[in-house]
Amino acid sequence: MVQELVIAIVGAASAGALYMAAAAKVVKQYERGVVLRLGRLRNDVRGPGFTMVLPGIERLRKVNMQIVTMPVPAQDGITRDNVTVRVDAVIYFKVVDAASAVIQVEDYRFAVSQMAQTSLRSIIGKSDLDDLLSNREKLNQGLELMIDSPAVGWGVQIDRVEIKDVSLPETMKRSMARQAEADRERRARVINADAELQASKKLAEAAKEMSSQPAALQLRLLQTVVAVAAEKNSTLVLPFPVELLRFLERAQQPVQQQVRQPQQAVRPPQPAQAQRPGQAQRPAQAQRPGPAQPQPSVAPAPPPASAPAVSSATAPARPPRPKPLARH
Predict the structure, then answer these.
(1) For residues 24 and 16, is the Cβ–Cβ distance under 8 A?
(2) 215-229 and 242-265 are packed helices; what angle lies between their axes, rounded to 10 degrees?
(3) Which residues pair with 110 in a beta bridge?
(4) What's the CA gap between 15 and 37, in Å, rounded?
(5) What is the 3-state secondary structure of 87-124?
(6) H-helix segments, the chain
(7) What's the rounded Cα separation, in Å, for the pair 174 and 86?
(8) Which run of H or of E encompasses 49?
(9) Are 92 and 109 in contact (CB under 8 A)?
(10) 3-state secondary structure of 184
(11) What are phi and psi of 28, to 5 degrees?
(12) pTM score
């Protein structure tokens, strides 16, 4: 009898230990326990710590309350300006109502993932390419609002949605690179033109100051020579401004005028050239205005002396000479 009683007590203790082991549950700090008794939801959600359930009657489901980071698979789409892109994103969410996450949706993770993919496709079709590349903050807010609206009924709160990468076709990348290059070249030309305008204004002011003092131009030239010679070059290219030549020419004009005036005062009269016989007389040249000079008198040339007559009686007979030709 005693042996049977002991066996019964041991069996009851073992059954009680097994029952306690099956009924004892531990809920972690970041989890919440939802209890279903005979398939019906209990109103009390078990908090973190040790808790007991009735084995076979109650069922405990643990729900993670931490923020979940879920990557959204890359989605191919066509933007509003007809550009094919491939966009992927990442979503951050957490469960705020454990009972709704268990009762309202079969698998809240899968539901959030599918909702994120469809919302991302919708955002791609409603946006331009420039918005996807430069105005992502606004698109992230719109995408978060689209996902958060149905997720509220599932006991899920969307914390943040970020568009991670936008993949473009190679042809579109080359086109955008050429556009950016052309834009930068345009801005560079505008900056260069503005610099030339400012430099021209400053040069005009400098030229105005130098025009009042012509020696300043020569000093500036000497400074340029010093700057070039400081590099120890074997060949020196020296620019010679035309203005300096004009300055030197204007400086020499008064000196030349003073030298020419005494030379014209003591200039002796030139004798007239004898006219050859038979040559037509040239018209008198117009005299230059100036002081009157005495003209020397030219005596007319005496006529040639006639040969003396020789009698034919006394003169020996000579052969006749040829008659000279008269010059005309």
Answers:
(1) no
(2) 130
(3) none
(4) 22
(5) EEEEEEEEECCHHHHHHCCCCHHHHHHHHHHHHHHHHH
(6) 2-23, 98-103, 108-126, 129-134, 136-151, 170-212, 215-229, 242-265
(7) 17
(8) strand 49-52
(9) no
(10) helix
(11) -75, 170
(12) 0.54
Per-residue pLDDT of the chain in tens (328 residues, 90 and over written 9): 677 777 888 888 887 778 787 788 888 989 999 988 888 888 888 888 888 888 888 888 899 999 999 999 998 888 888 888 999 999 999 999 898 898 888 889 999 999 999 999 999 988 888 888 888 888 888 888 888 888 888 999 999 999 988 888 888 888 888 988 999 999 999 999 999 999 999 988 888 888 887 778 778 877 877 777 776 666 766 666 677 778 778 877 776 666 666 555 445 555 544 445 444 444 444 444 444 444 444 444 444 444 444 444 444 455 555 555 545 4
Tell me the C-alpha distance between 167 and 274, whole Å: 107
How many Å apart are CA 190 and CA 186, to the nearest integer?
A: 6
Pairing of strands 68-78, 84-95: antiparallel
Which one, of 160, 162, 79, lies nearest residue 122 by Cα? 79
How many CB atoms within 10 Å of residue 103?
15
Quote the crossing angle between the two packed helices 108-126 and 136-151, to the nearest 10°. Answer: 140
- Amino acid occupying residue 289: P
Pairwise CA distance, residues 28 & 211, whole Å: 92
